[in-house]
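Entry 14: structure prediction run for Epoxyqueuosine reductase. Input pasted below.
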Amino acid sequence: MSRQPKPSVEVRIAEHARHLGFDAVGFCRAELSDDDKARLREFVDQGWHGTMGWMKERLDQRSDPQALWPDVRSVISLGLSYAPDSDPLATLQQPDRGNISVYARNRDYHDIIKGMLKHLAQFVVKQGDGVEVKVFVDTAPVAEKPLAEAAQLGWQGKHTNLVSRADGSWLLLGEIYTTLDLAPSEPRAGSCGSCTRCLTACPTNAFPRPYRLDARRCISYLTIEHAGPIPHEFRPLMGNHIYGCDDCLAVCPWNRFAQAGRQAKLAARPELVAPRLDELARLDDASFRALFSGSPIKRIGRNRFVRNVLIAIGNSGTPALRDVAANLTSDQDAVVAEAAQWAVEQYP
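Run finished. Output tokens:
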């Protein structure tokens, strides 16, 4: 009886990745296309990165994996689905409630994916003599989306995020850089076609043109990365978004093929789906830390978060919330106090 041929190293790695819980896996050379490099350069040259100075400071390493690690030969790109099991935009119809981005309604995905990547990396190093690896999950100058596209996990949609035929716009990404010389994944079809739903869904018109994002206008950037007062021109457009924004992701037609994510640690905590704005506004530092322990929201701190909540209160049109905002006009944090005063002034 003849023996079955041993699966290729790529097949072995992919099978183990799925065994660990990853929903997508692919391989590519450790290099970016000229088009991807030009897109990154334009993003910085136009100032679309806003205050995210690290985008500019380490652009060379982001544009060239070998500038970050000269020995890297291949990239293993991994995707973990966080597709919701209900309409993520339903909360937008409840003005006295806050809308939290789907990925942030439970545990911090950085911690989850990094643990999974480390387990997979241990498997990868056993696939040859002297194999070396480095793991990344949004914590280093790594062009995650272009590499995921090159590894055939999907394609960068007009909203600049990755779109997958199987998981829609709901994939969290991680990478393993390795000295292994891996065969690139076979091309897979898929495109946005003539669809522009993501572009028209954006409340703040953050897309200068398809496939380009001005982060300075993006609600996710404004509520998470932006320190200090949020520009007044964007406040009425933010609605009740208090951490991140899924508007452009949620309307993608490819989402109809996505099954709800399987990772229990990413399943929404009930108290973080449509949380009450009045309760969130009353959080002090200790109660904020307790509520968001283990959550990515904890990273931005109480003051920035309550600033976001107060803007949502100002947009709510709910008279009962006026007094909640008024109580914070003398908050010790100047940014919180200013946002509270703005919220009060939105009521006649």
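Notes: The mean pLDDT is 96. Will compare against the previous run tomorrow.
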